[in-house]
Design a protein that fits this description.
Blueprint: H1 2-23, E1 33-36, E2 41-48, E3 67-72, E4 76-83, E5 93-96, E6 128-134, E7 139-144, E8 156-162, E9 169-172
Parallel strand pairs: 2-4, 3-8
Antiparallel strand pairs: 1-2, 3-9, 4-6, 5-7, 7-8
The protein binds copper (II) ion.
The site of copper (II) ion has 8 residues, from loops.
Length: 175
């Protein structure tokens, strides 16, 4: 009887932890975005396949546009891209928000040099690249993986270039 009680107690303790592990949405790490108001530069740590979400087809643990990086117009954006996915190569390109989603690389990107090396083939797990561009046009864009099929599978987040916002922000987005 004592044994059964302790087992029940253990299950009660473990079950909610397991549920939280699978259901908890990805949260934003404050270290992902660094803001330099003097140089008007937003530096963003973009990690492909940070988690197992969507078979690794995610950026920073978000897919389908559920993360939004907002920067004021004319700010410089530096993106430090790393592929954390040991199974698949990934790349990143800033493009206009269009429908349908592009199946692969788009020429040219929305801003000059707003793309990683080897857009089509992608960078292998553990590889990094950095890009720097000036967000000189207000609008709604996306940062998507240009390896064929990855964007279509949901590997994209949002970039908003705003004429009214005064400071870069990173926020979760629902639609
Ligand atoms: Cu990809």
């Amino acid at each position: 009887m004592t044994k059964r009680l302790s087992l029940t107690g253990l299950l009660l303790l473990v079950a909610p932890l397991c549920a939280a592990q699978t259901a908890a949405p990805q949260s934003i790490d404050r270290n992902w975005l660094t803001v330099d108001t003097t140089a008007k530069t937003a530096t963003f740590q973009l990690t492909a396949g940070l988690t197992q979400l969507n078979g690794g087809l995610n950026f920073n643990g978000f897919n389908d546009g559920k993360l939004t990086l907002t920067v004021p117009t004319s700010w410089t954006v530096v993106i430090h891209f790393t592929n954390h996915d040991t199974n698949l190569p990934h790349s990143a390109e800033v493009v206009d928000t269009t429908k349908p989603m592009p199946a692969g690389p788009v020429e040219p990107p929305a801003f000059a040099r707003a793309m990683t090396a080897r857009l089509m083939q992608g960078l292998a797990g553990g590889e990094s690249d950095s890009l720097r561009f000036v967000a000189n046009k207000a609008g709604a864009y996306m940062i998507f993986c240009a390896v064929p099929g990855h964007g279509l599978a949901g590997m994209w987040i949002r970039l908003k270039v705003s004429a009214t916002e005064k400071r870069p922000t990173l926020a979760t987005s629902t639609s």
